[in-house]
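ok so I'm stuck.
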Amino acid sequence: MQPGSNGAGGATNSAKPTASFPPSYESKAITFTPGFRLQVRYIHDTKSGKNEFFVARLRLKAKGELFHTVRYYTEYKFDTLGRSGKDPTVGFENAWLEYSIARNFAIRGGLYDVPFSRNALTSDSKLLFVDRSLIKDQLTSFGFADNTIGLLGHGRPFKGRVEYSVGIFNNEKFRKFRKIGAPGVNKSAHLMPAGRFVYHFLDPAPPGGYGDYQSSYVGKGKRLSIGANSAYLRKARDTVNEFNLLGWGTDVFFSNGPFSAEAEYDQLRKKLIGNPDTQMDGWYAQAGYLVRGRVEFAARHQQLDPNVSVSNNQLRWTSLGSNIYFRKHNVKLQLDYTFRRGPGQIVKTNALQIQMQVDY
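replied:
not stuck anymore, here's the structure
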């Protein structure tokens, strides 16, 4: 990663401190830039009839460099604060160190996102809609698209046209190495290899970045990117079965000025020892259009099939949304309305979400 790059969580290295918010600290040995993110959300759910107002995310962040050679990033979360019926989620979301061995080859170790799914690798502060996709949540439930401990090699050679990332990870849901005191019901005998490859046809990707995608670039640039990723976990166990997990997916992103579009397909296959396989898959397609540089209108359709061998088992959600950018993604207001359809639903249910975000 190049010093001074704009990658997600990347450190900023300048010749001398500059006045900014939040303030940064520099010395000969260390640079330190603090930050925070606050997302306050309102939800009206026609299924439950509830109106909820709560803090969806509160994140405290810090990034910088050690001795101008090793980059670091930490993010501590206080999520779902004040939501009825749900306990707050508190703990580290990111905590990693990174060292550039060569111009287009960096090693990262610690807690961060597995290189699987563009939707999962897009920060929740830079999404087109309030929430990520159904298939991303399904992948997360098996530890394939979430933050976990791992060792990663990544780079963006050929002037940012090509992007690669490959590593080995302790699957979050089926751990080989468990946290001290954590229950050992779900586990695995192996670590999980995962990798991702992307080609950028128009504007190149920022040098050195990783997981720094945006679902909307707020009217800037021309981008066409096609990506593919895969991950594999052997001998995972739950309370009943032992199985192997194989996941793969592909995605495409396009933007030109005020228009942006994105689509992704992912598949996860659960191979039970001595039993038929269970295949899960899902996809989404979404688009947005920015008006006068501040107001963006968006639409998304998505489907999830938790078991393709079972008929009439799909979830089908369609969302309409709008974003108001006061200071791009740093200060924005999001609103979306989702029409939720699924198997066996006699009464159709919908949900309205409004979220205010401040991110520095």
